[in-house]
Design goal:
There is one protein chain. The protein has a domain of about 150 residues. The protein is about 20% helix and about 25% strand. β29 and β30 form a beta hairpin. α1 runs parallel beside α7. The longest helix is centred in the C-terminal third of the chain and has 18 residues. The model has no long low-confidence stretch (mean pLDDT about 95).
């Protein structure tokens, strides 16, 4: 057995586990009871971390509160340069131009190194240190082209206000989508084109107001339809054509009925959006669809084994994960790709043995760090590339590094800090501008009780702008002059403008312009897609216990995956009146 590099910490952690066992615990953040199963217990021991102190939902909320959300801001750098930033104007973090991140002759993070005192609270020292180290104004990838207003995206071209996207072209107000072109206001869409206001659709074209449709074309206001063409207001159909509210029509009947619905009129759009919500809530939904997976609990787990979570591809032994790919032996993470034996981290690519990291790639044995690339054996660092044996951005020899880290981790464990993610107060983002806000919305008071900042958008709300009533209700009445106007959102009082490619898209699709702020629209779509955590429920057909993203308070009829497959396979779908 190899000699431990951190013998004091290992002995302390072993002693900690002698007095622990699986069971029911109380969340120190919410007061709720939560379970740690024997399987989870053993994985935490394997990862060499103490047991979580908060619910899996609170763990995920903390993680996503540490990363930027859907809003972008104009900021001025110390040299007077104006840049697009993912950090609000009240953020205490010093900024630099995103392009400089890739030029080590301009940015030298070791210049900000400082000595850590193991006897002091790590998080107090981290907050001081974190506010001294400059960050790139926006998460920028040089593979993007003409996509200045895109965050956490790569290999995208001519995109505007997109988030977490890849291999996209000509996309506007799009979140976590890939390999798509010419879409506006979509969330989690893959390989789609000419789609508007859609959620989790794939391999489709000319869609509007659709949810979870795959392989569809010329389809509107449909949910959970596969391989359908020319359908309107349908749910749970397979390989159908010319259906209206699940009623089979002839081509002529279908065109007559759809032709009477003018989606260029915002009043007609709103009428159908309200009507379709009730229709969708009366249709059968699957508790979770997990193709090619075994021994899993969750939704959209593809080819996974022994996993709990939402949205993952080919993972093994991953617990409490959201948005994972090709990873194994991990727990409590989100947006993790090609990761192994990693814990409580967010936005990690190609990592091993990492714990509590944020936006790190190609790293090994890195802990409590952010914005690291190709680093090994670093603790509490920011912005380092190709470095080893650093603590708080200070370089050490290997002989110096391990005793220092051993002392830090041992003292953190004694104080109850080790294993905890960075506190809300340490986030560079205000809570309502972070990526937790769309998934875990809080009031200002609730966020502040957690220690988070809040940004009021006071300057934006004070701007003069046209009331939304001045935006024509019918697309045919909208002239190019609309591009010169700013409008005030009736829901949020925030101000926004339409951009030229957006107007051109609406004219091509023949759909009325939206009438609320883009961020409000994006949050509505994300929240319409159900939570990204699980609830225990039972199948409404066979009574089987299931874990699902659909809350117990929802009126939606719920079926386990087997029963749902039988329902849609036997065409147990009624004509909707």
């Amino acid at each position: 057995m190899p000699t431990s590099k951190t013998p004091l910490f290992d002995a302390a952690l072993d002693a900690y586990y002698q007095n622990k066992q699986p069971g029911t615990f109380t969340c120190k953040e919410t007061g709720e009871a939560f379970e740690i199963t024997p399987k989870e217990f053993e994985l935490y021991k394997l990862l060499r971390v103490p047991l979580p102190s908060v619910t899996s939902r609170a763990r995920l909320r903390r993680l996503r509160a540490s990363i930027a959300g859907l809003d972008l801001f104009r900021r001025t750098l110390p040299d007077g340069t104006s840049v697009v930033s993912m950090f609000d104007p009240e953020s205490p973090i010093p900024l630099f131009h995103a392009e400089d991140e890739w030029d080590e002759t301009k940015i030298q993070p070791l210049d900000y190194g400082r000595v850590i005192d193991p006897a002091r609270s790590f998080f107090e020292q981290w907050s001081e240190f974190s506010r001294s180290v400059p960050r790139p104004a926006i998460a920028h990838n040089p593979s993007n082209e003409r996509s200045e207003w895109s965050v956490y995206s790569h290999d995208s071209k001519d995109c505007y206000f997109t988030y977490g996207d890849s291999y996209n072209e000509r996309m506007i107000y799009v979140d976590q989508s890939a390999k798509s072109t010419d879409c506006v206001d979509v969330f989690m869409s893959m390989s789609c084109s000419w789609s508007y206001d859609c959620i989790q659709c794939s391999n489709s074209s000319n869609l509007a107001f659709c949810d979870k449709c795959d392989g569809c074309m010329d389809t509107f206001f449909c949910s959970s339809c596969n391989g359908c063409t020319n359908c309107f207001g349908c749910t749970n159909l397979r390989q159908k054509k010319y259906c209206f509210l699940n009623e089979q029509l002839t081509e002529e009947e279908y065109k007559t009925r759809v032709g009477a619905i003018d989606l260029r009129d915002a009043r007609m759009v709103e009428e159908w959006k309200k009507r379709i919500q009730g229709i969708w809530e009366s249709a059968w939904h699957a508790a979770g669809i997990n193709p090619g997976s075994e021994d899993v609990e969750g939704d959209n787990l593809h080819g996974c084994h022994d996993m709990t979570g939402v949205y993952a591809y080919e993972c093994e032994r991953v617990l409490n994960g959201y948005a994972y790919g090709w990873s194994k032996d991990c727990a409590d993470g989100t947006s993790m790709i090609y990761s192994e034996r990693c814990y409580n981290s967010v936005y990690q690519l190609h990592g091993s043995e990492n714990k509590i990291v944020n936006n790190c790639q190609h790293c090994i044995d890195v802990e409590y760090s952010t914005l690291l690339a190709s680093c090994e054996h670093c603790f509490g660092c920011i912005g380092l590339h190709h470095k080893t044996f650093c603590v708080f951005n200070k370089q050490y020899t290997e002989e110096e590094y391990w005793p220092l880290v051993d002392a830090i981790k041992t003292e953190m464990l004694k104080r109850g800090e080790y294993g905890e993610f960075f506190p809300y107060s340490a986030s560079p983002c205000a809570y309502n501008t972070s990526h937790s806000d769309p998934f875990f919305p809080l009031t200002k008071e609730e966020a502040q009780r957690l220690g988070a900042r809040w940004y009021d958008f006071a300057q934006e709300r004070a701007l003069s702008a046209s009331p939304i009533e001045e935006l024509p209700l019918h697309l045919n009445d909208v002239t190019d002059d609309v591009l010169q106007k700013a409008f005030k959102c009736p829901q949020t009082s925030r101000v926004w403008r339409f951009v030229k490619p957006e107007l051109a898209f609406h004219r091509t699709m023949g759909i009325a312009l939206p009438r609320i702020h883009p961020t409000a629209r994006r949050k509505e779509r994300i929240q319409q897609n159900f939570p990204i955590y699980l609830f225990p429920r039972t199948c409404g057909r066979c009574g089987k216990a299931v874990k699902t993203r659909i809350p117990p308070t929802s009126p939606i009829p719920l079926a386990c995956e087997e029963c749902y497959t039988n329902i849609v396979g036997n065409d147990e779908v009624l004509i909707i009146k």
